[in-house]
Amino acid sequence: TDTRPGLAVFPFTNGGSLGPEGEDLAALEVGIQQMLLTELAQNPALRVVERSQLRAILEEQDLVRSGNVDPSTAARIGRLVGARYVVTGAFMDVYGAFRLDGRIVDVETGEILKTEEVRDRKENIYQMLVDLSTRITAGVALPPLQVAMVEQRRARAIPPEAVTLFSRAQVFQDGGRHEQAIELYRQIS
Asked: For the whole model, what pTM was predicted?
């Protein structure tokens, strides 16, 4: 039996994009979820629930379309997938200033243990995800990611266009549109 603390990450809520260069950020709901999962999975002391497993239960409970996930609902779904903690969150772009909010919920109590906010320019969205992944788990009885790994992840130069393409590819893949997903994945490399 795997005794590592289990962690599930829910799709993030889209707060929208405001300003003259506002854009449709809907695909980031899934893209941020997947990239945050990847960042959290860099910590071998955590057991991260696969997104597809969580997605199946969210669809079964009709929570994918409604987006109605409060802490008690998150805790209930977290128990179903065998997680000890769940991460929920939201994002927003206001005139190029990007904000990423994350919350970690204790599955046993439904209590929000911690909230974190990361702000920066949208061009730095990947580094924001790395920062959120380390900050959201700090101080809540979860083992931290090694500092060297955090620095290695932060040093990666991932352009925001790659994040957007990846997010759209994930949405296509989830919808069974595999050819379109593959094309977007190819555009990233």
From this structure: 0.87
Residue 62 pLDDT: 63
Question: Cα(94)–Cα(178) distance, rounded to whole angstroms?
Answer: 32
pLDDT tens digits along 46-84: 999 988 887 777 777 665 555 566 777 777 778 888 888
Three-state SS letters, the chain: CCCCCEEEECCCEEEEEECCCCCCCCCHHHHHHHHHHHHHHCCCCCEECCHHHHHHHHHHCCHHHHCCCCHHHHHHHHHHCCCCEEEEEEEEEECCEEEEEEEEEECCCCCEEEEEEEEEEHHHHHHHHHHHHHHHHCCCCCCCCCHHHHHHHHCCCCCHHHHHHHHHHHHHHHCCCHHHHHHHHHHHC
Residue with structure tokens 């290695």?
A: 152
Tokens 């094309």 correspond to: 183
